């Protein structure tokens, strides 16, 4: 693993006689490490050929080379990984900013829609066909303007009374979402936020919800569903894998498609039961672990072994060692994780060791 001397990994150590190994006491010898990134002759030296002295000279010389090389490698590795960690921090700041901006953009929508008289009227008169039609049309127009996936209004039992997708074959109208946490949060007078897979559309999205009140009394719930898939598009051509995980450690956005809806760590039984009850990741079970293996620390970041990633740009399928950096997303229990390939660090450390 990263951090170990490159000389521990070498296949063999060769001591080459340059003078045909004559019978004289002294000869010129060359020490070479085979198996280094580039096989290099390290040093040409004069060594006393008497057996005891020869062994001692070789031992001392090899020991010196190993010590100097190890120090050079460690210095090169620490320097390179510090630079990599700093770059990762800048990237994470950018990703957190983009995600936070998207959350702020849509978080206000349920509160604004809750003020509309047409929406309030359909909750007060759910059996009035005209009120339902007007609410459907209003929500359809509002959703089109906001560029969201869906906007809908529910009564206090969780039944959808009107929805922006009322004309489609995945209409939410008449559906029961009482089991969803975002509904229960809003019904209790709080703002709800929930990421999950739709039980009707089977499409993942982020749900925002707010209570719908009239005269200080909660009469219903307004919800908005937003697709965050477009956030991932710029990540797909990136150099290093990016993941967004929820508070349970489940990855729901990532530049590595096969990791989507997998977990950072094995899930405890209580979490699995909760996911089943809320149908948060409906049709995505089983939520198996990605298989990250933590093998060390590098400041606030971690060193991890990762299962081979097939089909990654730049032949990432053969890169299994990464620097794992993470950053929380404000006002959520989410975190963004960045896996930085350690191969450039290894190469830099090897160059430093051989330069000495």
Topology overview:
Blueprint: E1 12-17, E2 26-34, E3 40-48, H1 51-107, H2 109-113, H3 117-124, H4 129-146, E4 150-154, E5 160-163, H5 181-187, E6 192-197, E7 204-214, E8 217-226, H6 229-232, E9 242-245, E10 251-254, H7 269-278, E11 293-298, E12 301-305, E13 321-328, E14 335-341, H8 343-355
Antiparallel strand pairs: 1-2, 2-3, 4-5, 4-8, 6-7, 7-8, 9-10, 9-14, 11-12, 12-13, 13-14
Helix pairs in contact: 1-8, 3-4
Overview of the molecule:
By secondary structure, this protein is an alpha+beta fold. Among the domains are: 118 residues, PAS domain (Beta-Lactamase); 127 residues, PAS domain (Beta-Lactamase), CATH 3.30.450. It has 8 helices and 14 strands. α3 packs antiparallel against α4.
Helix content: 25-40%
Q: How far apart are the termini? A: 22 Å
Task: Specify the CATH architecture of one domain.
Answer: 2-Layer Sandwich
Assess the beta-strand content as a share of residues.
25-35%
CATH topology of one domain: Beta-Lactamase
Order of helices and strands: EEEHHHHEEHEEEHEEHEEEEH
Structural class: alpha+beta
| Helix run count | 8
* Number of E-type strands: 14
CATH structural class of one domain: Alpha Beta
CATH homologous superfamily (4th level) name of one domain: PAS domain
Instruction: For the largest sheet, list the strands in their spatial order.
Output: 10-9-14-13-12-11
Multimeric organization: single chain
Task: Spell out the key features of this protein.
single chain; 356 residues; alpha+beta; Beta-Lactamase; six-stranded antiparallel beta sheet; five-stranded antiparallel beta sheet; 14 strands; 26% strand; disordered N terminus
């Amino acid at each position: 693993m990263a951090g170990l001397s490159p000389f521990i990994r070498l296949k063999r150590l060769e001591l080459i006689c340059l003078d045909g190994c004559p019978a004289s006491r002294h000869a010129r010898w060359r020490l070479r490490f085979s198996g280094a990134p580039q096989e290099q002759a390290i040093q040409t030296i004069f060594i006393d050929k008497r057996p005891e002295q020869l062994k001692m000279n070789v031992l001392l010389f090899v020991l010196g080379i190993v010590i100097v090389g190890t120090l050079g490698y460690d210095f090169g590795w620490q320097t390179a990984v510090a630079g990599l960690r700093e770059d990762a921090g800048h990237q994470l700041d950018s990703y957190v900013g983009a995600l936070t901006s998207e959350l702020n953009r849509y978080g206000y929508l349920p509160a604004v829609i809750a003020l509309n008289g047409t929406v309030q009227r359909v909750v007060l008169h759910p059996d009035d066909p005209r009120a339902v039609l007007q609410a459907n049309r209003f929500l359809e127009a509002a959703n089109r303007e906001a560029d969201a996936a869906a906007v809908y209004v529910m009564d206090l039992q969780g039944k959808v009374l009107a929805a922006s997708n009322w004309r489609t074959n995945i209409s939410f109208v008449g559906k029961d979402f009482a089991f969803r946490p975002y509904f229960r949060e809003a019904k209790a007078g709080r703002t709800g936020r929930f990421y999950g897979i739709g039980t009707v559309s089977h499409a993942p999205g982020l749900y925002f919800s707010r209570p719908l009140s009239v005269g200080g009394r909660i009469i219903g719930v307004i919800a908005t569903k937003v697709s965050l898939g477009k956030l991932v598009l710029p990540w797909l051509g990136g150099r290093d894998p990016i993941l967004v995980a929820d508070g349970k450690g489940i990855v729901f956005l990532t530049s590595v498609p096969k990791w989507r809806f997998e977990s950072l760590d094995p899930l405890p039984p209580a979490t699995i039961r909760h996911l089943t009850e809320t149908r948060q990741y409906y049709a995505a079970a089983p939520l198996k672990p990605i298989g990250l293996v933590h093998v060390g620390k590098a400041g606030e970041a971690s060193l991890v072994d990762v299962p081979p990633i097939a089909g990654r740009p730049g032949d990432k399928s053969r890169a299994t060692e990464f620097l794992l950096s993470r950053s929380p997303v404000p006002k959520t229990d989410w975190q963004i994780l960045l896996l930085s390939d350690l191969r450039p660090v290894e190469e830099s450390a090897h160059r430093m060791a051989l330069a000495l």
